[in-house]
Amino acid sequence: MDTSVINVHLDPVDAVLEVGLKDLWFPVCPSGFVKDSPISLRRLGYKIAIWRDATGQVHALEDHCPHRGAPLSLGVNLGDRLACPYHGVEVRCDGTVTRVPGSPGCKLEGSRPARMFHTAEAAGAIFLYNASNPILDAAPPLQLPEELTSPEWSHFLCYTEWGGDYRYVIDNVMDPMHGVYLHKQSHTMSEGASEAEFQIRDIPNGFCFEKKGQRGVNFDWTEWMDLGIHVMRLEIPYPKTGGPGGNFTIIGSYTPINNRTSGVFHWRCRRVTGWQRDAWRFLYKNRLEERHWNVLEQDRVAVENMEPDANKREHLYAHDMGIVRLRRHLRNLAKAQLDRPV
């Protein structure tokens, strides 16, 4: 395990979770962020250089030249490799130094000292595999829910960055009860009981936290799934003015930028094909998108204004069973990561 990214001032388990669990896929940015010229992003405890080659394939390396540590993202895109701007050292996308112009044949040439990241591009986003092995030869394939892969579904990616720990974003989504209060003025969440009983139900690859006796009325349930990427799914009922396609499904995945900033990915999805797809996409862009951003903004303001140690001074009750279960599960995954042989 790479201990260089662990905050030594934290409990070891919290330190692992703060920067994101290893050996998982994470979304890191919308596809449109990455052009031919390299960009630099802080994600998952690293500064990462990301670029496209001539075919459009995305590559990623730690934004750190193995020679002197200069940012590779300021260098020259040579297709499958970057040339460092400082001394021209060329680093291939698999982490291998292929050329040292100032000292040909030196021991740095042919070595593989740079951390590389396997990439995937899907559903309008770039994904990185956060491998525990810095030079992993192959990553497991990215697996996404059917809402993002099936031709029977259509979706829009909503990306934003929130000023808080990404785990607070996860807690917010694993809390259906806040919908009837925080979002009570929303066109989609103004209905439903202001009191509820909840239950936890196991599903393939995860669990569902749901209100008893109420479904399709408000924000009534949340699913958490481990598909090799951690994703959350919820459903919001739509008024008829929202167009064809039934209820509105949201797929969420959340990535640490640093311990005070989160990358927040929500895909807004509906099961529609043919003319219905065109109709709902038109209605969404012209009538609904702004309203949905307003709802998301309510969540952002609430989460950003929580103190960093808010989760250390809580008094939880039955509506928080889902949060408790998920936190416990993530801590167990972090403990297992710490226990793995280095």
Explained architecture:
This protein has helices spanning 12-19, 166-173, 179-182, 274-304, 321-339; strands at 25-30, 39-43, 46-52, 58-62, 76-77, 81-83, 90-92, 97-99, 116-117, 119-122, 125-129, 153-162, 198-203, 206-211, 221-226, 230-236, 248-258, 261-271. The chain has 342 residues and is α+β, with helices and mostly antiparallel strands. It has two domains: 24-129, Rieske Iron-sulfur Protein; 146-334, Naphthalene 1,2-dioxygenase Alpha Subunit, Chain A, domain 1, CATH 3.90.380.10. The strands form four sheets. It has a seven-stranded antiparallel β-sheet, covered by helices on one side. Strands 2-3-4-9 form a four-stranded antiparallel β-sheet, with no helix packed on it. Strand 5 and strand 6 form a beta hairpin. Helix 1 crosses helix 5. It is globular, with a radius of gyration of 22 Å. The model is unreliable at 1-8 (pLDDT under 50).
